[in-house]
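Inverse folding, one chain.
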């Protein structure tokens, strides 16, 4: 067991015939006691400081561990968010492609229908023009015939006949 300052202070030396000077030994022992007390006090302070620093180190180690776990969780969460965003983007793209195909098919169907309607209108216009041309030709032929002159004569004869029947 190590010596304490009290052990040093209470130490008694045996006296010999030509022993040491008692006052000089006592002064030296007093100085050793003071120095020893100082060393013990410093040792206790350093021990307390080491304990305090070890507690802080433990605390900071816990914080470091917690932060590392938090970083790992954040990284995993970021990866999950990224994967989910990629899946959602793919779904949006597929849905957009389906909508685009549907819109294109509807547009093609409408354009075919309009093309058929245009063809039908062209046929109707052709028939109409043909009939109109035939009508005009018939009217021109009628105008070019001598029947117009005969119509005038027949009208006069009819008038004369109606007048004579009245008498």
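Residues assigned per position:
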């Amino acid at each position: 067991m190590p010596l304490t300052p009290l052990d040093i202070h209470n130490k008694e030396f045996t006296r010999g015939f030509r022993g040491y000077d008692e006052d000089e030994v006592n002064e030296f022992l007093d100085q050793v006691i003071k120095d020893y007390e100082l060393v013990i006090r410093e040792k206790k302070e350093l021990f307390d400081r080491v304990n305090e620093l070890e507690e802080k180190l433990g605390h900071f180690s816990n914080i470091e561990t917690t932060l590392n776990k938090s970083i790992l969780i954040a990284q995993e969460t970021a990866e999950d968010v990224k994967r989910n965003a990629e899946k959602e983007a793919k779904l949006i793209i597929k849905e957009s492609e389906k909508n685009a195909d549907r819109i294109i098919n509807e547009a093609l169907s409408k354009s075919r229908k309009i093309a058929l309607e245009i063809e039908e209108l062209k046929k109707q216009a052709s028939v109409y023009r043909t009939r109109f041309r035939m009508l005009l030709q018939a009217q021109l032929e009628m105008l070019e015939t001598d029947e117009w002159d005969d119509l005038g004569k027949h009208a006069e004869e009819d008038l004369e006949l109606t007048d004579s029947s009245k008498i």
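Residues 65 and 71 are 10 Å apart (CA to CA). The helical segments are 5-10, 22-144, 147-166.
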